[in-house]
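=== Structure Prediction Worksheet ===
Name of assembly: unnamed complex
Input type: mixed (protein and possibly other molecules)
Chain count: three
Listed entries:
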Amino acid sequence: MLRFIVRRLLWLPLTILLVTFIVYCAVRTGWHPEQTYKRANPRASQAKVAEYLKVNGLYKGFTGFVRGYFEWFWRFIQGPDHWPRSIKGRSLVYPPLRYAIFNTLRLAGISSLLGWGLGLSIGTIAARKPGSWFDSIANTGAFFLGAIPPFVSGVALQLIFAVELGWFPVAGIYPPGHQGFDLGLMAKHLVLPVTVVTIQVVSAYSRYMRASLLEVRSSDFVRTARAKGLSERAVLFRHGVRNALIPIVTVLAIDIGGLLGGLIITEAIFNYPGMGVYFIKAITNGDIPQLMPYLVITIISVLIFNLIADVSYAYLDPRIRLD
Amino acid sequence: MTASLLSLRNLVVSFKTPNGTVQAVRGVDIDVAPGEMVGVVGESGSGKSVTFLGILGLLPHTARISGSATVEGVELVGASNKVMRGVRGKKIAMIFQDPLSSLNPVYRVGDQVAEMIRAHQEVSRSEASARAVELLDIVGIPQPKVRARQYPHEFSGGMRQRVMIAMAIANDPEVLIADEPTTALDVTVQAQILEVIQRIQRDMKKAIVMITHDLGVIARVADRVQVMYAGRVVERANVNDLFATPTHPYTVGLLHSLPRAGQDRLEPIPGRPPNMLQPPAGCAFRARCPHAAAVCATSLPELQPYAHSMTACVRIKEIDVAAMSGVTA
Amino acid sequence: MTDANSTPNARDASLVVDTELGVDDVEALNVATLTPLQMAWRRYWRHKAAAVSTVIMAFLLIVVLFAPLTARYGINEQVLKIEEGNNIFLSPRKLAWFGTDDIGHDMYSRLIWGIRTSLFIGVVSAILSVVIGTAAGALAGLYGGWFDDLMMRVTDIFLAFPFFVAVVVARAALGNIKWITDIVGEISSIKFIIFLFALFGWMGVARLVRGQVLALKEREFIEAARAVGAGNPRIIVTHLLPNSIGPILVALTLSVIGAIVAESTLAFFGLGPQPGADSTSLGKLVELSREGAKQGNWWLVVFPCGALVLLAICINFIGDGLRDAVDAKLDSVK
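=== Predicted Assembly ===
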């Protein structure tokens, strides 16, 4: 196991280098640096354009890509103070990025914890008595809700509860012009986006859990546990849920890795200033200095949590031997 | 025969399926006396496993069970969860067919045995662990202390089955039900496991129900035998009588399908077992029976004494005469 | 006892009555006369929601395939000539069942044309993803060694991007590379979006097929096939694929709706394909619904989104039904 982790940890920087290089090339190809800069700053002098290209290492040609990548990478790992400034207004990239990360973590954290708790409980209760009314309602409900794309449910909730009924604010995290921290106000703004995400999480995890637990419960060792004379509770939790969680923890770890990239759709609908909105803004402006840190952070998060998923799987299931 | 320990009376088990109701067990009477080894033999689908899983409430929830099953006078059919829990593992313990899938892969072997102890005895965690190591030693697992800390997948098939046996005897139960304990094992290992089970019966004076489709196992370990076909007991006899003078045509067919010295061809029983969604009226074996007559279709044969056995065949007297005069179908 | 029952345990046939299969084969006795395909068919229709969804989808498919007949108006036809009266933003009425949009097009007709395009996108990109994924997974699983390592690394790299981020970045990048757009069409074309979805949709199937291949490789009959000299491609075609067809079919179904929703999502952000003046797609209609919502024209929101949700639910249920159909365990007594 230790050998596996070490080997994967050695691989990780290589994978990160390779993937970020691909991303760098993609971004350079997708958003023409000179054009986007001129579009963002129509009255910029030729000297300014040249400076922007030089600071960001945006050289032409394949060798220019490689050289530019390594220059960019060197700046990136030196820390946020050294990151190139944004295309528009030459502002620092890191403060808005950090702001976006915290906002996304807040939204994703609340809705994921709610969603996992609810989803896993519902799945467990449903699998206890397959075919019961609770199971039918939960399973069908999860199916219908899970099939609704988030932008449909988001817009629907927004129209009903914000526009028509006026119970909750339409968008944002605070009213325009608000200063400082206000928990109540923030909670009010969070209700609708959290609901949209939680619905997705609950419907997915309740179904995972139900399927996994049903499979475990039909296995021979659960019959053995019952034949031992254990209480139904002990059979359910010690031999059912414990085993059913093994594959789910893996999915969970992978899902967490993807969260840092932002809940793009939900954030966009509710104009919630998280990573998703940050990303949309960056691609709309073709802002390479803003886009690159976003992509790199997102990818590193995914890769690390994929590794955690593999390791946790091996940790939870003694049959898996990694080396 | 002394007073019976475990007693089944007119036990019926059925399953609801999307295609109708499967009548898996159709009125079975079996008695098990203290200290004896009862063999239950039959083909798959004959209801032999379902009968014993059924009395312990270990069947899927689609199963319906009726009739009576008592252990030391305690009724099991329709018993509350609490009563059932006190019986499972404490009065009746089970040994299952496939020891790999029957052990939880994520817990250490010793812990799984200790869990069985703690389910019925008020002992501390460490006492239970120590006792688990002793039990592993009793069933012949070398280095029990080390092995107790390993996981099931680190054991061989035979060693896993020993663990199952250790678990089964942990609470000193009255009855052990071994459901095809050797089927999933290699031939050489089968013999070792049977030895362990026999030793336990001898040393600990346990009553054991040996469910199997393997007549070799029956011949080797059983005292009395129940032959099951299509959810009913068709013949009951002492093991020597069964092999020497089988009475029911099904039993005769089974023994004929075994290889014997000087015989160059096996004689399988023609046909296949009946569809248990609609079991035939009368004798279920008549479609495959060389001696079937019109009378076989009319009434469900009950077990009745004949020679040294109990046999469920209405034509037993005529058949036996025919057989003795050398006429075979 | 039949051969089918006794072959697996021929080793100890000497003293054995029959292979004990337990409770399951009580039922097997009953259904043994059906072929596996017939049994799968029965299990599928037993799934009520899948059955209903199949009927709805069949109906929708007919309507959509015969769009020239079933749509009331042409794709760019206005419900009224402008001189005959106002034709824009009409609420649902006899003239236009689902109302009209900002240029007087009939929403009902446009919805039919749109679903037609979206189903095309969904089905083609799903088939491409599954073909790529199956090929990659089967080859990786079968050849093993460094090739397997390489394929799995590539899969990992593709999986390192969240889907939406990957599609948006790749769309911009690949859309700027001339030789790619020469082959798969301009960035806003439908061909291009299908290419994108296939490019980022194959990894799941690849892992699935690889897993299946590895599991099947362990089984003896593949060894037997090798022993009689069947070459690798033959092994794949004759043994591995038929055995994995069930899960692949499920994945295929689910990636159809995945692609349809993804197209709408991209369109919602203004990044979807532009089907051109004489065509539309569900995504395009969803994109327009954003404006409709702001102006309070509810029918511009309800019908396209409703259609999308209906498609999503039906296709998901069909996938669920297929999952049941390929799961032979469901026929046991349980």
